[in-house]
Amino acid sequence: MSTYKELLAQESPEIQYQVAQKIQEIRQELLLSKLREELNLSQTELARTIGVSQPTLAKMENPENDPRLSTLKRYVTGLGGKVIIDVILPNGKSVAFQL
Questions:
Q1: Best label site of 1, 6, 74, 99, fewest CB within 10 Å?
Q2: Which residues of 43-67 are buried (b: 16+ CB within 10 A; e: fewer)?
């Protein structure tokens, strides 16, 4: 199975640019703090749950942060949730997987 980077490298520069733009849009929309606030948890409570300090959690929630998928999984799992990624390839095929 190919990695995301390998699949993206096979695409045209235009597609790569479009993907980068879409990622930036999503990053701006996905504020981790909204997920935590939905469950009425404080940063301190969630930080304790996932085993980090409150300042570290605050950095994770910073909208300018570019979290790794493993960080996102740890955060969402700490909330009791699951991360599912749905990838739509240029040929229209959709592949979803759970982290």
A1: 1
A2: beebbebbebeeeebeebbeeeeeb
User: CATH number of the domain that 50 lies in?
Assistant: 1.10.260.40
pLDDT in tens, 9-60: 888 989 888 888 887 777 655 688 888 999 999 999 999 999 999 999 999 9
Number of domains in the chain: 1
**Amino acid letter, residue 2:** S
Distance CA 96, CA 29 (A): 20
Alpha helices by DSSP H, listed for 1-99, are 4-9, 13-29, 32-38, 43-50, 54-61, 69-78
Q: Which domain holds residue 93?
A: 13-98
